[in-house]
Write a structure and sequence with these properties.
Order of helices and strands: EEEEE
Shape: globular
Number of helices: 0
Number of strands: 5
Largest sheet: 5 strands, antiparallel
Length: 57
């Protein structure tokens, strides 16, 4: 998946985070999941989305 490409499957909205090669976010409604894909998937954050969700990544 390239940085400018977005994948939407059903209710999942998956996008690569700007400035990161392996960090992605999945949104399902107001729930946000941030994960790292380096061959293995590592969940970094799961929670309700708000204006501070993406800070610190």
């Amino acid at each position: 998946m390239t940085q400018s490409r977005e994948l939407t499957q059903g209710y999942l909205n998956i996008r690569k985070l700007k400035g990161h090669d392996t960090l992605y976010r999945v949104r399902v409604g107001r729930v946000c999941i941030i994960y790292r894909d380096e061959g293995d998937i590592t969940i970094e954050y799961v929670g309700m989305r708000n204006e501070k969700t993406y800070r610190g990544f």
